[in-house]
Q: What sequence folds into this?
């Protein structure tokens, strides 16, 4: 399980960019958990943890 926070957005994503980011996050998580392909998820997490 993972907690993903989108800074600056409320409960709903009304703008295009946050909504696309959310979809990419969901697809990467499905790749990780359902297909056992962690590369996309690892890449997304590495970008978020960089200074």
A:
């Amino acid at each position: 399980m993972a907690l993903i926070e989108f800074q600056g957005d409320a409960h709903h994503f009304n703008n295009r960019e946050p909504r696309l980011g959310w979809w990419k996050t969901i697809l990467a998580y499905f790749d990780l958990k359902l297909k056992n392909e962690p590369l996309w998820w690892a890449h997304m997490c590495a970008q978020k943890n960089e200074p």
In short: The CA atoms of residues 18 and 47 lie 16 Å apart.
